[in-house]
Write the structure tokens for this entry.
Amino acid sequence: MPNTLNPLELIARRWQPSARFVRGAALATVVMAVLIVVTGGAVRLTESGLGCPTWPRCTADSLAPTAEMGVHGVIEFGNRLLTYVLCAFVGLAIVAARSRSPWRHSLTRLGWYQFWLIAANGIVGGITVLTGLNPYIVSAHFLLSTALLTVATVMWHRSREGDGPARGLAPRPVRQLAWLLVGATGVLTVLGTVVTGSGPHAGDANRVHRIPIDWEKITQLHVDFVFLVLGLSVALWFVLRAVGAPAAPRARTRDLLVVLVAQGAIGYVQYFTGLPELVVGAHMLGSCLVWIAVLRVALSLREHPELPAAGEASGEPEAPEQQAPVPAGV
């Protein structure tokens, strides 16, 4: 019985994308992951969270919103449709990584992780609607989107590296400081979801259950962690200069500081102006950019070199070509 090739292998036999194309496809998944977060925020900020009151259909009788549902139904349904666009970009990244020769299994795995995170978050999004925008489910929905953004960023970074064993580019305590910074930023992100779940933007014009916490007090704790993350970033920047780290990690840390300062400024503006929707949306975009920047700092402190070619793996010189025997008497 002949072997049956799967579709990805068939494509790989007929298409060989360039390394630049694979990197571009991976970057596109990062952009789409940010876009899905921002548009999800727009759904909440325009009070369209229940624009489609049920799931997976928009109404009990219709897959799409009806004219009577107005703009809220269009906004919520548009965000649902964007998930399919995101799946298309992730699918392209998976196919491109699989078709690249030699096949880099690590990249295709990262692509599939994104696919399953999208599927899981789609289900959680449906539960969010069916539970009437339960704030704890809404928080889980956002955190899964952050997990998707994490994997997309790692795939983008890894697409510019090889598959050799990882090696550090700075002393181990410096790398540990960078991952401490990642952890503190993760806590900052979680606190941001609690602020959202207890704050005034509930996602629907009708009364929606909120997390029973004083949102101003949790906002203050959120601000405290902003200063912690900023302090760790400044400390890391000085440490990298002190140990003579390569230019790339120092540049990534500088970029992180710029994004943090901008995000802090937006945060203060939204707080002192009564949380206007447009500024809150900009803050959500900034949170994605901060997370990408902090991940890039940590990832830049180690590298995966290219694996040696098959003929170079042993490190032995190739055997010289054998000469034809010389006839006797010559």
Notes: The mean pLDDT is 86. The chain is about 65% helix and 0% strand. Residues 70-99 form the longest helix (30 residues).
